[in-house]
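Hallway conversation turned thread

IA: we were arguing at lunch whether anyone had actually written out Flagellar secretion chaperone FliS end to end. Turns out nobody had. So, for the record, here is the sequence (133 residues) and right after it the structure tokens. Reply here if something looks off.
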Amino acid sequence: MYAMRRELNQYRQAGPIAEIAVADPHRLTQMLFEGALERIAVARGAMAQGNIPLKGLKIGQAMDIIGELRNALDLERGGELAANLDALYDYMIRRLVVGNARNDPAALEEVATLLREIKAGWDAIPEQMRKAS
């Protein structure tokens, strides 16, 4: 039984790793959004179950991903949009810290909602614009 579970976990991990190897920058950014959202969802579940170590781990991972999204911004060329996203990512990280410290699922949901909104805009970028950049 343990061997089957281990093999299943290895299979689950192989898919995203293979996709990363061939993904374009647009898809990689989508995957970062998806990863952050997944980790926040797991953290909320862990919070509800009282699993403090898992909650902290997943919130930390979500914060790392949001930090990477923030670091990828080109503040010089991105103008007002990049500055606004920078401030929003900073806010999200601070809300995750508060949510973790206070065991506040509403703070985590607020961040997830913001991430979903940004991801929806990112997903709506037309294919020809993705290739132009």
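OS: looked through it. The chain has one domain: 25-123.
IA: good, adding that to the notes. The chain has a mean pLDDT of 87.
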